[in-house]
Amino acid sequence: MKKVWNVLPAWLKVFIYFIVLSIATLIAGVVPMLNDLTFFFVISLAMSWLFLRAECLSLSTLRCWPNNRKNWRQFFAGIGIGALMLICTAIITFSLSGDAWHFNRHIDPLFIVMGFLFNLWSAYVQEFVFRGYPFQVLLRSYKPWIAQLIIAIPFGLMHVHKAMSPSDIIVTMLTTGIGSLLFGLAYLKTKSLMLPLGIHLGWNFLQYLVPRTAGGIDKGLIIVAESNIVYGFSVVVLPYFVIMIIAFALLFQCSKYWL
């Protein structure tokens, strides 16, 4: 198997990887108890171990856990960056929509703790699945921008569901695609999954606590008053693009010594 696997082009290895994950998704759809992040993580972990073993490498080469203080610093810095990005996006959205909001006076600590743990696990699984083996094997054979674009496609598709309209699918692919590029750039700058994991977690966790539109949960840090406004592209999506582009530009210019 080693000889056969090692002569395969990187794109084919990644194609096989995601085909197996697609089959796992179909199985999870038939067996509801398997439709869980842990199931997909186990599948991805098993494939990564098997494929790396065939290439005479180990899981440690994926740099998917913190090995030193620098990695921990990258992780916590990423959380701060992701959280700040979400807050800035929310401020712009509120300014455009005119929605009234107020701080929640009855915050449930358990809701926050459980939300943090869930978002930590979700972000870690996604970063491992997409910017673990597939992204890194592509980087060994192709230019970074090619690897980035290839991974952005399945990353976007993961966030699509059958109830979406065609326009919603396009917007979802674009927004998650840009997110994928940012997380990928964070890996390229640090050669570790800790910074992209932190940014991913910071964004998702604050998004969980700070709704940007009315009609969301009422257990987060703020509550948005009911509104009759129609949340269009310019109110919700455009602020996201603006903040993402700014973050991308700043991270791109950032020296590796600062990270």
From TrEMBL:
Molecular functions (GO terms): endopeptidase activity; metallopeptidase activity
Keyword Transmembrane helix: yes
Domain of life where this protein originates: Bacteria
GO BP annotations, alphabetical order: CAAX-box protein maturation
Coiled coil: none
Domain CAAX prenyl protease 2/Lysostaphin resistance protein A-like: 110-206
Family annotation (InterPro entries): Rce1/LyrA-like_dom
Name of the protein in question: CPBP family intramembrane metalloprotease
Chain segments annotated as transmembrane: 12-31, 37-54, 75-98, 110-133, 145-163, 169-188, 193-210, 230-252
UniProt organism field: Pinibacter aurantiacus
Alphabetized Pfam families for the sequence: Rce1-like
Keywords, alphabetical: Hydrolase, Membrane, Metalloprotease, Protease, Transmembrane, Transmembrane helix
Keyword Nucleotide-binding: no
